[in-house]
Amino acid sequence: MCRFLLYKSKEPSVITDTLNAFARMAEKSRAYDGDSQCDGWGISWLENNTWHTYKSVRPIWEDVDSFTQFPSSTLYTIHARSASFPQHKNNIEYNQPYID
């Protein structure tokens, strides 16, 4: 099962610490069938009234070096993916968030 996080604040916030905690949680989490959220991840954030998105097929906990590139924002959506079907693994098109 996928994991989602919505982060909203009144003032722009840097999300690095929150992403690190979310990554640790996703790494330890397992669905009832033993599956993990290891099939990629994505983040979207609002900046100057425009949505921006970053997606990766790497597990979120293996992509922590990317966390510092995200700017301060008042709104983020984060998705840690657990592919339902093996043929859909390693396909970034299935990674949320879908903004376009």
Automatic annotation (TrEMBL):
The protein's matches in InterPro entries, at most eight in alphabetical order, are given as: Ntn_hydrolases_N
Please give the name of this protein: Glutamine amidotransferase type-2 domain-containing protein
